[in-house]
Structure formats: structure tokens, C-alpha cells
Amino acid sequence: MTNSTATAAEFAGLSATTLLRFATAGSVDDGKSTLVGRLLHDSKSVLADQLEAVEHASRNRGQDTPDLALLTDGLRAEREQGITIDVAYRYFATPRRRFILADTPGHVQYTRNMVTGASTAELTVILVDARNGVVEQTRRHAAIAALLRVPHVVLAVNKMDLVAYAEEVFADIAEEFTAYATELGVPEVTAIPISALAGDNVVEPSAHMDWYGGPTVLEHLETVPVSHDLAECHARLPVQYVIRPQTAELPDYRGYAGQIAAGTFRVGESVTVLPSGRTSTIAGIDLLGEPVDAAWTPQSVTVLLADDVDVSRGDLIVPTVDAPATSQDIEATVCHVADTPLVVGQRVLLKHTTRTVKAIVKEIPSRLTLDDLSQHREPGRLVTNDIGRVKVRTAEPLAVDAYADSRRTGSFLLIDPADGTTLAAGMAGESFTSTTAPAAGADAAGEDDGWDF
Questions:
Q1: CA 101 to CA 112: how far, in whole Å?
Q2: Over the stretch 118-147, which tens digit does the pLDDT of each residue have?
Q3: Which of 98, 235, 240, 293 is most exposed, with minimal Cβ within 10 Å?
Q4: What's the predicted TM-score (pTM) here?
């Protein structure tokens, strides 16, 4: 297998290759940044000046060989502490595929950043230190991957060189993790034994593990099936901006601009504007300033309607034959990411696509216990890194799809109205585990300040 960087001629043909978005995750010191650095280095995706800077920084730290983790740990605090804090995005390509990589933090304090990195990923690489096996943070990252409906999960059992490349160590860890992930509903787990520091099974096959006959990490990344089927999903266009030039050339132009979240729109199609429910027909679609007959996700377009319908930012344009129901009551699974707790009765802002509305947390029916995947009923609050079920009532009706049907229109954020802090990332509908029965209890929502819905 050739793993050299694509030439200029090969890059010209990359439009014909597939794109894979993937994220790395794992506990602290499991070697995520080293794996990413090794992946970039051995696939020859590192520029000469970048490698020279890493070599220089490594020498200054008294290291004889380049510390490949420095290729991704770019913040000063990251280099000083030897941990990843921010999500580092890297873009690289081989002749077989293009990649967008999100290197996410492993420390429990930065789990919220793992949610960010994995939210758009089609594959997640979860690292485990072969000496420590599956730990709580490993289970948390597996739960988040399942919750975010990441279709492919790779278990990279790292630091195999420190356990003498023992097959039984790898097999035990792979069996434990796969059983846990299967219980979460993860559809596919691929386990690979590696040593990111030594380069075993990252890009090139290991000479120390002849008992392993599977793919290297890069081989799997290059060949894993990627299904970009969003164009076949329920069509959704969140309106971001209303274009009204009112010039002599365009006196009556009124276009509704936004990025198509899912599906395909065609000229002549009957559409409905939500939440108002008004209907019209697509009279035209402008893409990059040129009229087209059809457009699909993730294109950014301007849609023109045949009728003068009241449409503004935050509205959702959908096919009339496939319009979702609107509701002020949303039940979802959330990952709480703020330092302050989320409590029953709390007033929040809910941001769904381009629309932000006032809302109240009506119930918190359950919180997930990661050790045994049991549900702790009616906890009353969620704290940092908790995963739980919530019921929210919004001031205005929203058209929220089930997250299982659409990751774009089935997700939302809960925001602190006081300072704009993100409180929780929400996924509407059923989660990876069975939901608990509705919690009995008094309505804790307040009735003042116009926040009683």
C-alpha cells in the first residue's frame, strides 16, 4: 500500500475520492496526539518546516527524537502540561481519500470538547493504554460516540510495546470494550493493536505483532465505507438570511439564503415554511450566483418562492409532503458541558439550527451511570460531563427531527441567557438506551418574566 502524500496531479483528481471526517478520543496520556502525529508523519503529510519546528522544540526539551505529539498540541499550555486542551483540526490526504481529523482532549475536564469534535465525525478512534485497559473516560467517550450516532468506532489499543506486544492483553481489552460498546448500540467496532510512539500498525504493519492480521489504522481509515446519504434524507433548509436588494436591476428580488441541512430541493416543488405552516412553491434556486434546477446538502443556496410569504431568519423550509410536526415540548438526551449545573425549572435559551428561543427545563427524568449503563431516576440536576434525559418546553413551536433521522436538525444547544454560555448539547428523540418513565412531580417552572409556556 502506498501512503505517500498526493502529488499535484493526484490532488486534481481528489474530487473523485471520498472525504472522511473522524475524531480521536481517549483518556489522558493514552497517546492521542502522538498517534495523530505519527499518522501525519508516516503518511508524509507534514511539511518540512513543520517537522523542523517540532525537531527543534524536541531538542530544546532534551529529547533525542522528535516528539510527534507537538504536531497537534500547538497551544503553549498544551506543550507545557503535555496534554491536549483544545480540539485540533488537521486536513490531509492520501491518493485514496481526503481526511478532516479532530484531535480531541482526553482529560475529563475537557469532555465537552470531545462532544464538539465528534458531533460531525463519521468515525471515532478511541485510544486505550494497553497497561490500563478500559477506564471510566474510555466508557464516557464510547457513550458519547454512541449518543452522537457515530457509525464507525475504532478501538486503538496503544502502547503495545510496553506490554511486550502480548496478544492476550489486546484480546482482553478488545473483548471488554466491544461488549460495552455493543450494549450502547454502537453498530461497528474495529480493534487494532498499535504503538503510536514506535509506529506499529499506524501506517505500516508491525513487525512485532505477527499474530494480528487486520488492517493498520491508516488502511482502515482509507477503506472504511463512508455513506454520504444526506441528500436522500428529509429535506431541510434553515433560513439564515433574507436577501432583499431592492435595486433597479432587482426591484422585486426576495431570496431566502441558508445551508441545506439535509435532503434535496428542486424548482417547482411545493414547500412549507415552519413554524408558521404557510405553503408556497420554489420558483428558483440560486447557487453561487447562478440559477440551478436542484440543490442538495451541504450546499449554501438562495431559494426564491412563488408567493410573498412571511419568512425570516430561524424559519425552516421543508417539502410540504415531508413536513415534520412542530412542538413546544422536546424530550432529548443531553451532554452537560457547563461548569454550573443544569436544574429542573431553569430558564435557558434553546438554539436549533438558525433559530433561538426561550425555554424552561421542565424535567430531568434520568441520568446515565456509565459504569453499568443504568439510569439514575429523577436526579434533579446534571453536572459537568453528565449525560441524561431532559424535557424542555419552548416559548415558540420548533420543528425538531429525531436525532437518529438527522444529526443536523435533530440536535440543539441549551444556552445560559445571562452570559451566552453553552450549557448542554442535546440530541432529540430516543437515546442509545431505553428511556425512563416520565418522572412524577410538581411543575417546577416559574411563572414570572414571561418564561411560563
A1: 17
A2: 888 899 999 999 999 999 888 888 988 888
A3: 293
A4: 0.77
